[in-house]
Every structure is written in structure tokens, then in C-alpha cells.
Here is the input.
Amino acid sequence: MNKINFIPNIFTEDMITKLAQEETGKRQYYRPVYSLHKWWARRSGALFRTIILLAVQKEQREQLFQNIGTTQLSRESKYFHSHDLSDIVIFDPFMGGGTTLVEANRMGAKVIGCDINPVSHWIVQETLKDIDIERLQTYFAQLEKTAGEKIKLLYKTLCSVCGSDADGMYTFWVRYVNCPNCRKPVYLFKRYFLNAGMKRNQKISRTNPAVVVCPGCHALNKFYGGDSGRARLLPSCNCEHCSMVFHPDDEIFNEGYYSCSHCKTKNFSLIETIQSGHELYEKMIAIEYFCPCCNQRLYKAPDKHDFAKIAELEEQFEQSKNMLLFPRQEIPHGSSSARWLAHKFTHYYQVFNARQIIAFNILFEAIQAIPEQSYHEAFITIFSNSLEYNNMMTPYNYPNRKLHHLFNYHALPLTTTPVENCVWGVSNEGAGTFVNCYNRYVQAKKYCKRPFDKYKNAAGKIHTIYSKNEKISAQFVKSFDELKSTPRAVWLNCHDSSSLPQIPDNSVDYVITDPPYHDNIHYSELSNFFFVWLKLFNLLPYFSVDHVPIKNEAIVNAGMEKNEEDYQRLITEVFKECQRVLKDTGQMIFTFHHKKRQAWWIILKAIVDSGFVVSDYFPVVSEYKVNPHVRDKQSLDMDLVIICEKETTASGNAVSSTDTVCASVERKLISLEAISQITEDKLFLYIMGEALKLGSCCEKLVYKTFSDVLDEAMQNISKFIFQNNLDARSDLQDIAFDERFEAQQLTLF
Ligand SMILES: C[S@@+](CC[C@H](N)C(=O)[O-])C[C@H]1O[C@@H](n2cnc3c(N)ncnc32)[C@H](O)[C@@H]1O
Ligand SMILES: [Zn+2]
Ligand SMILES: [Zn+2]
Ligand SMILES: [Zn+2]
Here is the structure.
């Protein structure tokens, strides 16, 4: 076993978290390459750069992060230098959004990536390919003239202030059902605000009124706020048009239930209403537009021309349906799609309206006229990325006056008040338009040509350091022999990684990956949303199926009848292949997180059954803390990075007692300088890391022992913390025992 610690000191551990945290909070700014296309729960590039460097430059681990004083990161640190790893082969069997591949390619390593998901393969290829930015800009200028102008016409509207032609930016819709009791329409508003004042970050006031919709007549009103006299609630608003008095933050629809204001019946379930045969309709309620004459963004209730335009487009869609390009696939059953299906959205095209599909077709026609395939494909990627903000499920971030992206929660949300973007975009305003996604693509490609790292110093100033001799640029190859003989070679594979006959035994220096985390994110289900559109243009063999293949996806997804046994089997098979292709001196390093004990057990079993032992571990911040996914679902906001070596090279010092786990964790805690800053997540991961390390060396591993060790370790460590007064926070003990573990019984084995 490798005697040198993977993480040389606590400073290094802290710096990894610092860099990862800064990046995940502001990815587009720190590493724009990862904003080229949506991928879910991307780990930070900084983390994978660090993992690669720590793995490859064993003797220089201490210099990776150098400090000034005790806490400040020095810009002389090796991390910021240019590196040349051209003689190293790195493999990622779950490449996803391609973080490992991008970071490794940046330092010149040869990389092999594999993923079962065609969307992943597509995105990684697009990210790593070379492209001439000027040429891309020339083609974009052409598109703007052909498609851009035509698409913008679809959103023209008359300014309600000056009467001149204006550009529609956002069209606000509300879904409604007819009340099962009195048959009158119930508009499923979640609130009546369209914004929280015209000026962002300022309170609603006389000089900064909010725009609200009247629930009675749907006219738009100005709302000035003020004191309501009612606890918690805002004051009421008096409609200027129908005199109705209403509270703008009252909601008709909440958590799947609605009430009818006509017959006063309360708590109808929307799903039940729809399942009993009622339809869900949509009504256009407001338009936010930019008036060049008034030179500002304004709101209006739609006028007769706006309604006529929508009716005309719906008619056009019906007439030309057979000739238009759009996906015809059904939405398959699954845990993430259940909500859409329950509301009778059964086909992907149903989450788009006629205007969107017509606008896309105008765009397709122009994109298809681009003669060079690589540029043509770049624009398809840009289009695909824009889908997330151009559909009829996109919610609106009303205080910030911009769109939320669809997958804010790593799920397929049902939105009763969707906001329709202008597909092309109005000047440079707004998020998620084609123009906006094009800009992101360009920023990504500029980064590839001149990559950099950023870090914040103690004073909060952000430093940017360019790595002069690095770049992200692939030479795509199709075999191992070619990989060996080609500089900057990237070999992408799109299939199940549990069988990799094309990669020879003992040929890879490092396996570095981020495997699927149990039931965390339903990749195939979510990515179908892009897949069905990408497939329209793709003749590549892996796009020939109707949906993203699920059969061999390593995932727990009850909605798709994929259980823990399937997940365990697939993860183990993939790890076995990694063991086979890995050189005896190599390491397999991966991230993992989950709150469920079973999930960790499955990973431990897979490590052991595939012939690995855990040689080291360290915790690192993963997803940004405010990410709602982390709060709502059972996942931690820290990952454990697990370092495995082949069993044959390890000098199995098998120890089988809880004391070992406790002693190691206690040593760690004592060595921590800022002990009071230890969070429950971190402590949990230290204990888990030690348990995995110990468990992977055990002769006979059973779940009961693993579980007992964890229980005991939790208790002992909490006592230790308490006795040594190491942590002032009294909640630690409770959380360590009850919430995380008490509920977890031996349900699996
Ligand atoms: C957590 S994601 C990886 C995310 C990625 N490392 C990143 O940060 O961008 C896991 C990936 O594993 C892939 N996957 C699941 N089962 C697989 C299998 N049997 N073979 C290959 N890939 C698989 C999924 O399609 C998904 O892209
Ligand atoms: Zn105007
Ligand atoms: Zn009613
Ligand atoms: Zn009214």
C-alpha cells in the first residue's frame, strides 16, 4: 500500500474545498468550459485538477498548495503552474459532463471516457473539440440575419405606453382547470406578482412598484407595498380596472392542491382533477417586452393582436404538423417523469407550445444550411442547451426578473405559471435564449484556448492565473493503439462500462471518476429531454434508439423498476473492469456521497468484490449549499473522495475493530486547527472514510459489522468531542445519532 498520505496536510484539504466551493457557486465565471451545455450535479473542475495532480505527482504533494501565513493560498503554488502529463493515461468509466476528461486533457494527458448516455458523449465531444471561434462568429452572424430576425417577428408586440413596435421578451402564462364542482375556470396562480419591483434588489415602494395580476379580471396593476396591518402578509391591492381587492401573495395553487374562488370549495387535488378527465388549459396573462422607443423593459396585458398572433401560430402548427421537425417520443415512466405523466403530459413535444416549435424549426432550417459539420453541430448543441429555458415548464424567478432553468431541482417540475422566453433573444437581455447560449458556447471555447484558475484571497479579491502551456483540445482517436501514439488523444466510448473489451489489461495509469450516487439523480430520465431533440439531427449509431438506454444504467430508480441489487451489480461490474484495465501501480479515485447507509455499503462491497482496497479518503464540498436539490433530497453537500488501490499491491494490515476507526478519526480531529468549524457532514465523512478503509481490508465483510462499527464510532466520537470540548455545538450529538443513523436499520442484507 502507498505509504504517503494522499492529502499531505489539512491546509491542502481546506484549499480543495475552498476552490471547489468558489467554483460551484459561480461556474460560468470560474470555469466557463462547463457552461457549454447543461449537465446535472457537475463536480468542480478544481477538484478533479487537484485529484489528478495529487495522484500523478506523489512526491510533490506538499507543494501543490503553498501557504502564506497559516491560511492564505500562495499564487506560487504548484496547482497554478502549467503541467505536462503527456505520458499518463486516465480513464473515466462514468464520464457524465466530462470533468475528469477536460481537466486531464488540459494538462496533456491521454484520456479514455465512457458513458452509457448518448447525451453525455455528445456534450463531452462538443466540449473537447477544437473550433475556430472567428468562423463560428461568422456563421452566427449569418444565422442572426436568416433565423434571428424571423424568430423575433413571432414575438413582436405593441408598446402599451407609446404604441410603437416592441420586442416580446417573456410571455407569462397561467394554467387552469374547470372546477369539478361549479365548472368555472380556476387559474392556478401561485402568487399574483410578475415581479418584485421594477428595480432589482430594492424594496417594493411608491418609487419601485411591483407589477401584479388581478385575480378577478387579469388586468395588470401597480402595487406599492406598505404596511398591511396583518402579520406576515402584504397589504391588499385594489384593482384599478374591476375594483377587486386582493392580496398579491395569496396563492390558489400550492403543493398540488387548489381551491375554487367561485364556489369556495377547498383542497382539490390537481392530479385527481386531471386523472378524472378534466383538461389543463393555458392562458396568456402578460408580456414583458423591450420598447426601443421608450428604451426600457415594460409589462402589458396581452392585447387583441397578441391573442390573434398566438391563435394564428397554433393554426399554423396544426396545418404543418407533419412537416415540422419535433420529437414524437412518449415520455417513459420513471421517478422523475412521474409528475409530468400524472398531469397527462405524455409526449415530450407537449411541454412546448406552437410558437416555440415553429421558432425552433426556423432555427433548424438556418442551421442545416451551414456546410461545415463541426459548426453545424456546435449550433445544434447551442440550440439543445437553450431548450432548458424554452419550454412551457420553465418557472420565473420573479424578484430577479429572469427565468429559472428547468432543472433547478434536478427533476422535471410541473409549473402552473410557465414563462415563455423569446427563443432567439432580445439584444443581450434575458437568460437562456439562443443568443445567450451561443455566448456561453463562445466563452467555453475561449476558455479552452486559454484556460485559467481563479481564487479569492483573504481580502476577497479574485485572482486569475492563466496556465500558459495548457489548453483544452482533443485529438479524437478510436483505438488504444491510436491513443498511445497520438498526443492529446481523447477516446470517447458510448456504452455500458461493465464491459470494456477494447481497453487492454494493465494499460491505464489512473481511473478517476464520479459514479452515479445510488438514487440521487435520474440521469437517463432527465437527459431524455435533450436526447429526443438531439436525435432529430444525429445519425450517429448511439442515437438510433428512441430514448436514452436505461437497462444497464447503474442507478436506483423505483419508477423504472431499477432496484438496489441492479445498482450494486452494475457498479461492481464496472469496478471490475476498472481493476482489470488499471496498471498494478495505479489508483482508482472517485467521489461519492449519500445519506443512506446502504448506499455506502453497496459501494464498499463493490470496491472489495472488484479487488480493490481503500487506501485513503478526504472530504470536499460538492454541490453549492443553496442548491435546493441538496436540501430536499437525501444528499450531503460534501463528497467523500475515495482512493482505491489494487488489492494485490496493498499490504493488507487487516484490523477488525471499531477502535481503529475511532482512533484514526480522533487523531484527525485533534490535528484540525479550526476544530470548531467541523461540520456534521465532514465528521460523518471522516468516520465513513475510516470505516471504508477498515472494511475494505476485512477478511469477511458483513453488513452487520459495517453497520455496528459505524454506530459505535458515531457514539464514541460524539463522546470524544463532548469530553474534549472540541465542538461547542450541542446539536452535533443528536444529528450524529438520530437523524442519520437511527432510522437506518438493516433493511438490505
Ligand atoms: C454522476 S454522473 C457523472 C458526472 C460527471 N463526473 C461530472 O461531474 O460531470 C454518472 C454518470 O454515470 C453514467 N452511467 C451510469 N451507468 C453507467 C454504465 N453502466 N456505464 C457507463 N456509464 C454509466 C450516467 O449516464 C452518468 O452520466
Ligand atoms: Zn414604448
Ligand atoms: Zn367551483
Ligand atoms: Zn381586476
Remarks:
- The two ends are 30 Å apart (CA to CA).
- DSSP finds 22 helices and 27 strands in the chain.
- Residues 39, 42-43, 93-94, 96-97, 99, 114-117, 120, 496-498, 514-516, 523, 552-554, 570, 574 surround S-adenosylmethionine (ligand 1) (CB under 6 Å).
- Residues 228-232, 625-635, 727-749 have pLDDT under 50 and may be disordered.
